[in-house]
Amino acid sequence: MSAPTLTTRPLIGLEIHVQLATRTKLFCGCRVEFGAEPNSRVCPMCLGLPGALPVLNREALTLAMRLAMALNCKIARFTKWDRKSYFYPDLPKNYQISQYDLPLAENGSFEFTCDGETRTVRIRRAHVEEDAGKNLHDNPAITQVDLNRTGTPLLEIVTEPDLHSAEEAYAFCTKLHKLATYLGVTEGVMQKGQMRFEPNINVVISDGDAEFATPICEVKNLNSFRAIRGAIDYEIQRQTEAWQKDHHYTANEQPKENRGWDDEKNATVFQRGKEEAQDYRYFPDPDLVPVVIDDEWLSAVKADMPELPAARRARLVSECGLSAKDAAQIVADRATADLFDAAIQRGADPKLLGKHFISFWAKHANKRESTIAELGIDAARIAELAILAGDGKINATAAAAIAEKMLESTDRPSAIAKAEGLEQIQDTAAIEALVDEAIAGNPKAVEIAKSGGKKWEKSLGFLQGQVMQKSRGTAPPKLVRELLQKKLGL
């Protein structure tokens, strides 16, 4: 008899901490500022001093609701604040103000694509909480504590374990990051810890008719997509091998773990046993009243919600005639997509404008390591350039040359075209004279073109190029080709 087939099925859920893009902290007026002098952005509330009372930052909840809505979550009309009690040097109050049994939002879903297929991850809950400070280990002899980050508003998103590979998790995290930054909910700079991902990973192993599940391991505070992929891949392999070595490495017999990620070793490392909810001794915060989200507040958040990326991409494809790839490139940055729409409103042809965006405007943005919107060209000038090209007053080569000049001055595209001699010749007689010159000066190419042989199209293209060269690119290519074909009897 053949041996039973061993199969593995990873189960991956995520806890994502999104730093909300407010100017001040969640429960006090201290500024949120990365890189400030340690312990310089603190107050009695941040330091947990006796008598200091929290005051809620309404903008934090508004931003949190915006992202929760985009994740198709149900927004709670009544939510409250709880104290999550634990001792750690970067938590001076010895508790964190968070939300336990009545979160801001729950029961959502998020669709994304991976390997060309649409996947859906269920969102269990999304709640608002304050961040802790930061322990610094730069000095081997001591641990230093910087409390500037204490009290920074976070939205914690908890998913169901609907992911089954490192690649799926990578795709999910990158798409969620794009959504959060697109909505303006967070700046999302991973190196600054403005989005941190914590995958919960275990493996279901089927050995013949028997099924085993390894203990859940949570990898803490991953702040790069590379680390997300690496940590999950490593954990799947580590847990599978641990079970194969010792069949007692199961969720029934081993406790859950918190692990960290070592970038240099490309491995996770054990930190401590994973706490359960009861370990934190949650209880309602007596210093904060519950939050009631009324119709007016909810309607205001909905009204302020921009068109979501998926809907915007679909619109650019269906209404503007862009390819799915080009639409995705434009919509990847919200300000750039806004600029594109604003240029259309000023009369630019959408399809031609799309070609400009993905060709020379994208080229200049990449060269400057910026977005197209950050180039600083306003919608009116971008639209005028597309209109000039669409009306046949300049050709594609001239449009690219004018775009480059637009980066150096505030002149209108039409003025640049005139100053640089890039306007297309509108005098048919003048173009016809240039065609005659090209025919007279290239008898061999004319003979090949007339022969109708294999190289006739290439020769015709050569003659067209000669005319364009003589006109310094200002002759309309379509008219030049038509005149050449007429005169050569093609």
Strand content: 15-25%
Question: Which word captures the global form?
Answer: elongated
**In percent, how helical is the residue content?**
25-40%
Question: How large is the radius of gyration?
Answer: 31 Å
Total helices: the number is 15
Distance between the termini: 77 Å
Would you identify the regions where 5 or more consecutive residues have pLDDT less than 50?
A: none
Task: Round the mean pLDDT to the nearest integer and report it.
Answer: 92
**Major sheet summary line:** 10 strands, mixed
Structural class assignment? alpha+beta
User: What is the tally of beta strands?
Assistant: 17
Number of domains: 3
Short précis:
The protein folds into 3 domains: 6-292, no CATH class; 307-419, no CATH class; 428-488, Arc Repressor Mutant, subunit A, CATH 1.10.10.410. It has 490 residues and is an alpha+beta fold.
Provide the fold topology.
Elements: E1 6-19, H1 58-70, E2 74-75, E3 78-79, E4 82-85, E5 95-98, E6 105-114, E7 117-130, E8 134-136, E9 144-146, E10 153-159, H2 166-182, E11 195-207, E12 210-213, E13 217-219, H3 225-245, E14 257-262, E15 267-273, E16 283-284, E17 291-292, H4 295-303, H5 309-318, H6 324-331, H7 334-345, H8 350-367, H9 379-390, H10 396-406, H11 413-419, H12 428-441, H13 443-451, H14 456-470, H15 477-488
Parallel strand pairs: 13-14
Antiparallel strand pairs: 1-10, 1-11, 2-6, 3-17, 4-5, 4-16, 6-7, 7-10, 8-9, 11-12, 11-13, 14-15
Helix pairs in contact: 1-4, 2-3, 5-6, 6-8, 7-9, 8-10, 9-10, 12-14, 12-15, 13-14, 14-15
